Amino acid sequence: MSRLRGAICGIVAAGTGIAAAELLAAAVRPGAGPLVAVGGAVIDATPTPVKEFAVRELGTHDKPVLLSVIGVVLILLAATTGIAATRWRAAIPVGTGVLGAAGAAAALSRPAGTVLDAVPAVFGAALAGLALWWLLRERRGAADVVRENGVDRRLVLRLSLLAAGAGVAEAAGLTVSGQRENAAGKSREAIRLPAAADPATPLPNGIAADFTTPNANFYRVDTALTVPRVDPSTWRLKIHGMVDREIELSLADLLRRRLIERDITLNCVSNEVGGPYIGTARWLGVPLAALLGEAGVQSGADQIVARSVEGMTIGTPVATALDGRDTMLAVGMNGEPLPLDHGFPVRMLTPGLYGYAGACKWVTELELTTFDRFDAYWVERGWGQQGTVKTASRIDKPKPFARVEAGTVTVAGVAWAQRRGIAAVEISVDGGPWAKAELLPTASIDTWTQWRFSWKATAGPHSLAVRATDKSGAVQPEARATPFPDGATGWHTISVTVG
Ligand SMILES: Nc1nc2c(c(=O)[nH]1)N[C@H]1C(S)=C(S)[C@@H](COP(=O)(O)O)O[C@H]1N2
Ligand SMILES: [Mo]
Questions:
Q1: Which tens digits make up the pLDDT trace of 286-312?
Q2: CA distances from 306 to 222, 313, 316, 465 (A)
Q3: pTM
Q4: Which one, 240, 292, 296, 299, has the greatest CB density within 10 A?
Q5: Which fold has domain 392-498?
Q6: Cα 270 to ligand 2 centroid, rounded to whole Å
Q7: CB-ligand 1 contact for 361 (6 Å cutoff)
Q8: How far apart are CA 466 and CA 489, in angstroms?
Q9: What is the CA(444)–ligand 1 centre distance, in A?
């Protein structure tokens, strides 16, 4: 009984402290709530294979799952502290001290963290300690008087008070962050994007309806547990480092420049063969080459380190910004300001590079430096420095393990080799000879190419494999490679049943 009592007291006290800490963070340091800080620190410290596993198995559920795991660990630690404290009061400062220190350390370890970020965790831990002490304090000699049928009414009253207080704090915290979210959404809606001085060429006739990925369906991959809410009126971009002149720009400055609009396919290096982390959008943005020209890139600088508001670093080869491709600071996606999830108000985009190497979202700083001098976030974790997209292809129709009717079956999908373009796509049935698929019209060498193939399907189980050849003549290799460290290879092969 006293164990259960201790556990409940520990959990309620911890809940009170956490709710208060989250409210304080929501009010004064958005994004520095201890739960999210611990989650972020866990993400950064997670070994790459585990991260890969999480992205593969959990997809976009990886973040809720992570937060739930942290919640369970917290409950266990809080219960343990409570149980220990029923016998040994020193467990209170020890337990809450450990939790507070962990929260504070996590907040301080965030790349964009400041000393202030540790305050909510310390405050919450102190409050949790006081609450636990209050819950376990007994009026000397009075214990027997207030106990009826084994229920300690005074304790129940105190627990209810604290739980109610935690509930109110939690609700207030959610209201505050909800309001901020609304404000970010509203300021996004208020933005009027100028037309492009250099618009995209209209999509060719006969292009398939699903060539462009709607924003709502566009994949999302990032380490941000809560989507950064950037106030566009105070947002600044600083270009500095190995440049002749530092540049600082507001969003209005950026929107006054010559804008280009391009169809570009973006994909994630973590995408497995046949995976979903790829999409094509019509992007509006400022060519980076022009800005770099004004800043004057010094000789020797071979890396642009983009930093985002939440401290992500993405290293892009300088050459890929100056070799004539449409590397840009994007402000628009499919005719709208960038969605909050996709980097509002400004992100980088580098045709031909995986997202981790060329597409920093919520970007606020570009530092010209060298690859020798600095490893960006993913490179530090073993991923390749250059991030060049590999030639690849995917079967979208039929779905793996589908059952189809015998006769002519349309097999269809996409192939991509941004910067090189797709020259051919071939299909092999049951490991037989390769046959050419029909290529649909596409926008440019920086977008995917849709293809289809008429298959005379006969009854029985079959396998279908696809491979692409890019315009440099390179054939997509058969050998399977994992996404780590520089992108998956291998033919997408599916099994279907006919009949
Ligand atoms: N700030 C920030 N930018 C980021 C990332 C991130 O974690 N943080 N992830 C990168 C990765 S790995 C990819 S694949 C693309 C995904 O962009 P999307 O979410 O708009 O599809 O964003 C890139 N830019
Ligand atoms: Mo990625």
A1: 999 999 999 999 999 999 999 999 999
A2: 14, 6, 8, 38
A3: 0.88
A4: 292
A5: Immunoglobulin-like (2.60.40)
A6: 6
A7: yes
A8: 12
A9: 23
